[in-house]
Amino acid sequence: MTQGKTLIIVLVTLIIGFGAGFVLRPVVLPVERTAIVAGPPAAAPTPAEPRGAQYFAAHLEEARQVMEQCAEGTARGDECANAEQAVIKAEGRERFKKFMGN
Q1: What predicted TM-score, i.e. pTM, was given to this entire model?
Q2: How many CB atoms lie within 10 A of CB 82?
Q3: What is the chain's pLDDT, residue by residue, as a tens digit (102 residues)?
Q4: Mind giving me the DSSP string for 14-75?
Q5: CA 15 to CA 10: how far, in whole Å?
Q6: How far apart are CA 75 and CA 50, in angstroms?
Q7: Cα–Cα distance measured from residue 75 to residue 68, given in angstroms and rounded to the nearest whole number
Q8: Are 60 and 86 contacting, i.e. CB atoms less than 8 angstroms apart?
Q9: Do residues 87 and 63 make contact, with C-beta atoms less than 8 angstroms apart?
């Protein structure tokens, strides 16, 4: 019988302790608020999804500009790879046409 009473007292004490801890935590240790700092605006807004290699194949000048930005470090990600792929294919086609005499 004493073990049953002891168990109930321990469980009730734990429940009250945990409940008080959850209720008093914001009071004891307040949540730090981070300051919102506005950074400098980006030079060029980046689109949500990277443009594909087919887009850059149709717009080679833009692909070359993106490659320059990638070399400078101002742009990176999938657009760099897609632009580079489109430019390499276009240059390969031009070399093949020169080789074939067309």
Answers
A1: 0.50
A2: 20
A3: 788 899 999 999 999 998 888 787 777 776 677 666 666 666 666 556 788 888 889 999 999 999 999 898 887 788 889 999 999 999 999 999 999 987
A4: HHHHHHHHHHHHHHHSPPPPPPP-PPPPPSSPPPSSPPPHHHHHH-HHHHHHHHHHHHHTS-
A5: 9
A6: 11
A7: 9
A8: yes
A9: yes
